[in-house]
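Human: I hope this is not a bother. Would you mind checking the protein record under this note? Thank you for your patience.
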Amino acid sequence: MKFFIDTADVGEIKKALALGLCDGVTTNPSLVAKTGRAFEDVLKEIVGLVPGPISAEVTATDAEGMLAEGRHYAKFGKQVVIKVPLIVEGLRAAKTFADEGIKTNVTLCFSPVQALLAAKAGATYISPFVGRLDDVSEDGMSMVADIIQIYRNYGFKTQVLVASVRHPIHVLQAAKLGADVATIPYSVIEQLAKHPLTDVGLKKFLADWEKVPKAPK
């Protein structure tokens, strides 16, 4: 399973790259707003850092507007993926982008049938939002399981990109289900490496090492 980092913070991206845990990046208007920077400046910098897929989200809600924005962002680098919302106009744009050879990430997916439509439109990635479904007492990972089954049934090439990841259990479940990608906040990436028994074991090893006689210098 590939790890994308869900951020527009260049500092976080650099840290994830240094760990070898950044196969790509997903951004959205909310993440960009947190940086206080112009989106195109942020996108250009990320393109210069990350060789893998970089999702750049459009803000238009009509197909023609999405196409204009997406074609513009696609010129920033060959790794740019255009992120469109899962609405009828977004599906229209995704189909046109697919015909033009521009990769897409269809986002804000909350049901398996929505994901089916995105795949039929030729989406490169589908982004089911598991955390937001959990927030309203639905099972986000069950949706992911259904999407993966549907795609396998019919041989769709659209990759399942698990989004709205809130904690390590989401990552574990995505990996067990066979999702292609999980896009993860950097804070959750750090949590993946942590276990209390690791800390306890390291502390004991170091304490025991202090008791080992040292050779004279």
Remarks:
- The chain has one domain: 2-209.
- The domain at 2-209 is CATH 3.20.20.70 (TIM Barrel).
- Residues 86 and 107 are 6 Å apart (CA to CA).
